[in-house]
Write a structure and sequence with these properties.
With 299 residues, this protein is α/β, with parallel strands linked by helices. It folds into two domains: 10-118, no CATH class; 123-284, NAD(P)-binding Rossmann-like Domain (Rossmann fold, 3-Layer(aba) Sandwich), CATH 3.40.50. The protein contains eight helices and eleven strands. The protein has helices at 10-32, 72-88, 131-142, 172-178, 194-204, 218-230, 235-239, 254-270; strands at 37-46, 56-60, 65-67, 93-98, 110-118, 123-127, 146-151, 165-169, 186-189, 211-214, 241-242. The strands form two sheets. It has a six-stranded parallel sheet, sandwiched between helices. A five-stranded antiparallel sheet has the order 3-2-1-5-4, with helices on both faces. Strand 9 (186-189), helix 5 (194-204) and strand 10 (211-214) form a beta-alpha-beta unit. The chain is elongated. 31% of the residues are buried.
Length: 299
């Protein structure tokens, strides 16, 4: 088959460049808002086709779209594939279609469309704006997390102290009850009161979080586990609380403790098991064999 790729004139080039910029701007906005989306890109064409290489389209997880890759059957089929990937967590792939023979379109050409998922930066909520919370917020923002810090103490919730994070001067329990949590959210509890920690854990264990961690020593973790069991939480629920929190690196200062916590958050994000050689993998619900020594630093 002879190749017939039509080159756009200068006006079309300007229009396509403008449309592409709009797609990228929208992608940035949607991703910053925490939206999962699929990016559909025309990467190859042959013969007469409704769009040419460089045309792009976005599909958000909630069904909203932006841009077009040509409409008609080709766009319908690619969007259906993207919806499947968003629902099932598929990998990037390239779809190839003969528009007339396979899709019944009258164009007569062929198109290849690359479909890839674009995941938002994970959301990390830190309860407690004390020494550890502030240090962790700075690190996490630099490591690609969308950080929110929650604390009811006005003297500790100065946004300038935590650039890159959204700071909420609110009652922690109310925020924990009212926030729209998802199974992709990370939460770390580093408040200034053990009783507040306990109440937050009880509230958040009822939410579909990906990661729930609490700073504390082994004795604190054991006391919390007993209290949670007395309140009706099962072993699987209790095992969801990552405590003691952080990688055992001998950290002592708030900044070092934040580094140890950040290491555990990154490992979870990347799907890495950081248990020691004698530890049962975390995903099976067992506690880590060794705990960091830094657990009880409070503001």
């Amino acid at each position: 088959m002879s190749e017939d790729i039509r080159q756009p004139d200068e006006a079309w080039r300007r229009l396509a460049a403008s449309a592409a910029g709009d797609v990228w701007d929208t992608l940035v906005r949607w991703r910053a808002a925490g939206r999962r989306l699929a990016l559909l890109s025309v990467i190859e064409t042959r013969g007469f086709t409704p769009r040419k290489p460089g045309a792009r389209m976005l599909l958000a997880e909630d069904g909203e779209t932006f841009g077009t890759i040509g409409g008609g059957a080709i766009e319908r089929e690619c969007l259906e594939a993207a919806r499947h990937d968003l629902a099932e967590g598929g990998t990037a792939r390239t779809l190839r279609w003969h528009l007339t023979q396979e899709l019944g379109m009258c164009c007569g050409g062929e198109m290849a469309v690359h479909v890839e998922l674009v995941e938002p930066d994970p959301a990390l909520t830190i309860f407690g704006a004390g020494y550890i919370g502030r240090a962790l917020a700075l690190l996490a923002a630099g490591c690609g997390f969308r950080v929110t810090v929650v604390d009811e103490r006005p003297e500790w919730t100065h946004p300038a102290a935590m650039p890159g994070a959204r700071v909420e001067c609110r009652e922690c329990e109310a925020y924990a009850r009212e926030a729209a949590w998802t199974a992709r959210d990370f939460v770390v509890i580093v408040t200034h009161q053990h009783t507040l920690d306990q109440r937050l854990v009880e509230t958040l264990l009822r939410r579909p979080l990906r990661f729930l961690g609490m700073v504390g020593s082994i004795p604190k973790q054991r006391k919390f586990a007993l209290r949670l069991a007395a309140r009706g939480f099962g072993d699987a629920d209790i095992a969801r609380v990552r405590s003691p929190l952080g990688v055992a690196i001998g950290a002592t200062t708030p900044e070092e403790i934040a580094v140890s916590i950040m290491a555990e958050l990154i490992a979870e994000r990347r799907g890495i098991d950081i248990g020691g050689p004698d530890a049962v993998p975390r995903r099976h619900g067992a506690a880590r064999a060794a705990a960091p020594a830094e657990a009880e630093v409070k503001p």
